[in-house]
Amino acid sequence: MPQWKRQLHEVIYEADTPLGKIFDIGLLIVIIISVALVMMESVDTLLDKYAREFYIAEWIITIIFTIEYILRIISINKPKRYIFSFYGIVDLLSTLPSYIGFIFGGANLLFAIRALRLLRVFRVLKITRYIGESRRLMLALRNSRAKILVFLFAVVIICIIAGTLMHLIEGETGGFDNIPLSIYWCIVTLTTVGFGDIAPVTPLGRFIASFIMITGYGIIAVPTGIVTSEYGRATDKPIRNTQVCPNCNETRHLDNAQFCHRCGYLLNE
Amino acid sequence: MPQWKRQLHEVIYEADTPLGKIFDIGLLIVIIISVALVMMESVDTLLDKYAREFYIAEWIITIIFTIEYILRIISINKPKRYIFSFYGIVDLLSTLPSYIGFIFGGANLLFAIRALRLLRVFRVLKITRYIGESRRLMLALRNSRAKILVFLFAVVIICIIAGTLMHLIEGETGGFDNIPLSIYWCIVTLTTVGFGDIAPVTPLGRFIASFIMITGYGIIAVPTGIVTSEYGRATDKPIRNTQVCPNCNETRHLDNAQFCHRCGYLLNE
Amino acid sequence: MPQWKRQLHEVIYEADTPLGKIFDIGLLIVIIISVALVMMESVDTLLDKYAREFYIAEWIITIIFTIEYILRIISINKPKRYIFSFYGIVDLLSTLPSYIGFIFGGANLLFAIRALRLLRVFRVLKITRYIGESRRLMLALRNSRAKILVFLFAVVIICIIAGTLMHLIEGETGGFDNIPLSIYWCIVTLTTVGFGDIAPVTPLGRFIASFIMITGYGIIAVPTGIVTSEYGRATDKPIRNTQVCPNCNETRHLDNAQFCHRCGYLLNE
Amino acid sequence: MPQWKRQLHEVIYEADTPLGKIFDIGLLIVIIISVALVMMESVDTLLDKYAREFYIAEWIITIIFTIEYILRIISINKPKRYIFSFYGIVDLLSTLPSYIGFIFGGANLLFAIRALRLLRVFRVLKITRYIGESRRLMLALRNSRAKILVFLFAVVIICIIAGTLMHLIEGETGGFDNIPLSIYWCIVTLTTVGFGDIAPVTPLGRFIASFIMITGYGIIAVPTGIVTSEYGRATDKPIRNTQVCPNCNETRHLDNAQFCHRCGYLLNE
């Protein structure tokens, strides 16, 4: 592996060196700008006024993302491992839609392009990789995932039963036209969101609704109890190391690792 | 007890053997489909379009549930213990309404039948029996049940007092027509649901409402504190054993149990 | 102190003997009926229909409460300690308004009487005295009271600042007519109630509102953390003893107490 | 440092002496009155009626605050450290706007003045300095700040992605006119506020909304778990000492400190 490739890999994939940090921050700024552009384009008044500026900015960002994508492929020994990884696909989907839009452009297709652009938002997710604190959070969440899913499953069942009941009691007077809609209302109520677009009007319906609300208020304690317990158990020392193997792109290495624990490649020369 | 009966019991009531797992998953799929059908039938546009398809699907599911119900009775030594258990009654109520509907069918009775069908939803509850994680959750909830009930009782008393007060302050201007309605509004507010169909309009009413909201926001901590404490105490090893006694249907057995701790029947031959 | 007085005291003030339990349950039922009557009377349609029945029921309940009040005074050595205690005043206020209503009756005064009746609701609070579990809850709440008040005080300050800001940004377009109203809206939003009768409409107002909501969602963790910590520390053995000193009405005694720790009076002969 | 200056410093900046306590309580009352006045002035009906009274009260409060500001500068050795501290700037901004308003007065400027007055509200924040309990709360919050920010950042990202999705699904039928508005709606929903001014109307939109709500209901456990863990670790003995160095205004001193740990100045003569 040539020296320039190794150095490029360190800059692009890691955040330990000054250059690597600058690269990450620069990329973060471009991503935030691109997301802001997608948002602003969706506002009709802004789109009418600055259509040309949006078009130019879109071109510039697309080119930056394309260069970054090519660099990521070049700087790694096994490009397939990057291309078919989650972030590899997200990176491709961040540039491809724009090119498709530019080639098959037209008033009708414009909306569809904007829809594809949405996926670029996922790029922002990469930032969390760089924040050490998030690792411990993720660990606590992963450990309590099964229990939270069981809990949320119970919540959904309560909503299905209560929703069917509310449909029978309220019927169409309160807007509980059908069971799926009533279940939607139950979820809105049990999670204590409470939009108010649908609300019970009969005394019995309101009585049942009170039960649903008190249940929702009482059982919110369950996921909290789980996460608190799991979080207390999670290790105190989050791994802040951002070392990435230039051969196979494995990201989790011990702080004093010299060789990749997965492919045996030398991490630092 | 003949060998085939014992094996049938194992397949139907337990989930330890491959066949038992397949049976449970198959049953789960049928239950989900039947629940989805009840939901879809309640949507008028779908009912008008696919009335015949719904009728046929209903027949098929009813027959499947009937066969399952008969098998459950056959494969157990003391059928009465199953028939009069909670799930036995739920199973009966999952099939009986359909037959009653088919026999005494008619436009007017159709709605009543659909109402009875609701109970089939409860069948879904059985799934939770098969998930090991839920046992520990249930244990923590059961241990903190008394405390949570005391807390919810206090919440209801606060709502009754605050509701009466709001009725006197707001009267009919803000929609607080009578005390039960005002109590309903208080529950909506204290549990932080907040539909907005009823909302205070007088300055004093809004001032009291602010107090109710801040109280609700502050005391939500109480059930959470209880569950967290109890959950931390709950045993770490949930019982994942699904062994069911073929004689008396007792479900809770120690992992290495050879005889039912209740009736002394041999569990595995 | 004569024997009959001591026994009467035990029946009325305590719940350790079978007779005492029957008395408490009977009283509880009467209280619930009286509260239900106050609620039902506030519903106009019910009042028009059953005005006479409500009047008779009111008389019966008032007489029961009056007899109970007299018995409570008779059965204690130092009646003043009961009369001027919190529950003594509540008991008096549960009967007096009815008599005043009956004497100075009239269409106009009817509403005022109903207002006074509200206080009878407080009688229900006495029930919680009889539930052992609530003691530990109260202890945890009392220990964390100071911290929760500091937290709620911080919440109120955030609401005042954010409310003033929202009034300046939104003005009267979004319904933020004046600062008190905007503060009310902030409390509604920060506590995640969200009625929706007032909602920001300007982009900047919505941006600030988003911050308020995320703050409210994030800091709800604070009271929870406090109560969980305090609850874990609260003693595991709640005092279930309902012994009340027949001389001075002191309620908190150790399980094996023979003499009142306050006045030295013999508790059980 | 003259004795009178040292004593004045103790009265104004500290709360250990009886005079210091009286000064703080008096100031607190004036602050509360001034905040109440700002609120009441914003209510049009009150402003029309009591315009002159508000004007006079404003003058009195401004003069009190001015005297306090001058005393604070006089009684300290290094006035610059106070003037450019957070509270020094807040104190200045509490008086300056009133003077500017009085000099450049006029109907049009009246609103702008009121806007500047808002900052006086921040003065209330100083009260929390005097409450010992708040220190431990602040410590727990400061320790969990990084983790809560990571969590809230994740919440914002979820809202951006879900908001874009909802805009594409619902479009303008449900009021999801553009992406920023849809993100605002997502924040309203995920934080379980739920105003209801914007609500999904399409079946698919409601399905996605259900997911957002259940997510919001489930992950509220995360900040709670963090704060509970951190709060449990925070030291049990909050520092109740209000000793302030008369030379450099450092506020955190150990209970038995004789010299300022920062500038070495003698704390008590």
UniProtKB/TrEMBL annotation, chains A, B, C, D:
It is a multi-pass membrane protein. One of its GO terms (cellular component) is voltage-gated potassium channel complex. The keyword Transmembrane helix applies. InterPro entries: Ion_trans_dom (IPR005821), VG_K_chnl (IPR028325), Volt_channel_dom_sf (IPR027359). The chain crosses the membrane at residues 22-43, 55-76, 96-116, 148-169, 181-200, 207-227. One of its GO terms (biological process) is action potential. Pfam families: Ion_trans. Keywords: Ion channel, Ion transport, Membrane, Potassium, Potassium channel, Potassium transport, Transmembrane, Transmembrane helix, Transport, Voltage-gated channel. It is found in: Membrane. GO terms for molecular function: voltage-gated potassium channel activity. It comes from the Bacteria. Residues 21-236 form the Ion transport domain. This is Ion transporter. It comes from Christiangramia sabulilitoris. The lineage of its organism: Bacteria, Pseudomonadati, Bacteroidota, Flavobacteriia, Flavobacteriales.
